[in-house]
Amino acid sequence: MEKYNHEYGAEQIQVLEGLEAVRKRPGMYIGSTSVRGLHHLVYEIVDNGVDEALAGYCTEINVIIEPNNIICVEDNGRGIPVEIHPKTKISTAETVYTVLHAGGKFGGDSGYKVSGGLHGVGASVVNALSKWTEVTIRRDGFLYQMKFEKGKTVQKLEKLGEAEGTGTKVRFLADDTIFETTDYEYEVLEKRFREIAFLTKGLKITIEDKREETSKKADFCFEGGLNSFVEFLNKNKEKLHKTPIYIEKNGEVPVEIAIQYTSSYSENIYTFVNNINTIEGGTHLEGFKRSLTKVFNDYARSHNVLKEKDANLQGEDIREGITAVVSVKVKEPQFEGQTKTKLGNSEVTGIVQSMVNEALSSFLEENPNVAKAILEKCISASRAREAARKARELARKKNSLETSTLPGKLADCSSKNPDECEVYIVEGDSAGGSAKQGRDRKFQAILPLWGKMLNVEKSRADKIYGNEKLNPVILAVGAGIGSDFDVTKIRYGKVIIMADADVDGAHIRTLLLTFFFRYMRPLIENGNVYLAQPPLYKLSKKGMEDKYCYTEEDLEKAYKELEEKGISRDQLGLQRYKGLGEMNPEQLWETTMNPETRILVKVTMDDAIKADEIFTLLMGDEVEPRREFIQANAKYVKNLDI
């Protein structure tokens, strides 16, 4: 990787303001004090090593989760500068760890050309939110060390002796008086570091979990960069062309893009700025989409695939089945909002568009077979879109002729305020009947469904409009589907899937979630989708109030509590609920629908990449990957009904 030739010393570390209020208001700096905020501490330190890699000075980062949830991050970058800082009059390394907004990432004369850690709060915030932090630096032929407790220096930077090489090692213990949990999730960290390795070609990242007797370890290094990333994303999909289309250009704004088309009907484009996942897109995504539409239409026209009388292909036609990763490096990125999720630099649109126009046009001319395969899919998508439009209009016309646009089986609630309204999508008429009788009519609506519904993973939009199983759901939610979906128009703030606690119920939940993910994704992203948790068991005894248990663990706990009261297991009646229909309205209300006593699981989508992978794996056409997944995970299955 080309090195950014610039001085990296005390003068390049700029101090903006002091380290204040971080411990009092940690959420302002790391988002939250939940497990997500806890992981953010690790990302901040790792990002410092990644910035060194982007500058061309770091090739390896090692992360270890030590026993007792101590984190150790070591890189072989240049090492934090150790000389006295001209403004703070203490060592530059101590300044970086004790002064908020002190870092080498500000202004045109900074120590980095581009940086993911835009705000430069990483090291000092991690230090402030840790019980203790220990920093060891190899630089200028010597080994240095300093120590902190709760953000305060307890050992100033000391020279320990001579040392070969360069780099920085940081060990810290997150403060359990600040965080809700200090127990790191290895899989979450592993996923993030794999992503970073894809985005930073040639950088090796190792993560090891030493908390258990048998440690877990993973190494990531991808010389293929984004090509490897796209191949990973499409590993369970049928590809239209074997090798991804790869575009790379180094300039004032370096751009790297990988594209591969599959036989699926979904569109998956992931965008990054300086390795930051811009989940809301921005100007780089806008430039890419514009260019994609223009290049394919121009090619189709020039090669008579589209005749003069034919309308242009729409952007959504051309993006059907696409998997793409767009990564740009911007010196001074402008993000909309505090969450760094949407790029706002206007100049990036033209840069990306111009580069893709040139490179993609050349690729299609040089690879006519690939161009033909993609365009055939695009034209097929265009026809399906037109069929979907007609089906949508037919559905709207049909509904307008009816006395109500709501599905006939929907038992609506009296309130019209979406913030307090909720709809239960219930499996089966029997359970639907109990739910209708047991509900609170003011704010709870009931929509019974029956039978297995369409697997949308294997269907285009034209098959969905008017589908007898899905149309009631679309009408009840009231916000459209696909590109027409408007989350501000939803009729219910909570859309609750209530299915039996068995295999059939799990299948219905999965089919509905697949539909929401593919055609109403903002509903999930906005936190409006929930899963009801009906009980698995009821313990009863004459003269005793019934006790409901939602898990095997709940059942064992209930047995023990009752034994302590002198009630043995032999005296208790045990009922295993096979379906919601076995509960009368009062039981269903008390266990599953009463806001005071029920258990609801909110469906979240923290990781769109992982979600897409799982839905493709479990609901797609490829059988072998699904078989392998089932074989690997069968041992974790509980309560399987035979």
Short key terms for the protein model shown above:
642 residues; alpha+beta; Heat Shock Protein 90; Ribosomal Protein S5, domain 2; Rossmann fold; 3 domains; eight-stranded mixed sheet; five-stranded mixed sheet; 23 strands; 35% helix; 20% strand; flat
Provide the CATH topology of the largest domain: Heat Shock Protein 90
Which ranges are low-confidence, i.e. pLDDT below 50, for 5 or more consecutive residues? Answer: 400-404
Question: At the first level of CATH, what is the class of the largest domain?
Answer: Alpha Beta
**Distance linking N and C termini:** 57 Å
Q: Quickly give the structural class.
A: alpha+beta
- How many individual β-strands? 23
User: Helix coverage percent of residues?
Assistant: 25-40%
> Which whole number gives the mean pLDDT?
86
CATH superfamily of the largest domain: Histidine kinase-like ATPase, C-terminal domain
In what range is the share of β-strand residues? 15-25%
Q: How many helices does DSSP assign?
A: 18
Strand order of the largest sheet: 7-6-5-8-3-2-9-10
The largest β sheet comes out as: 8 strands, mixed
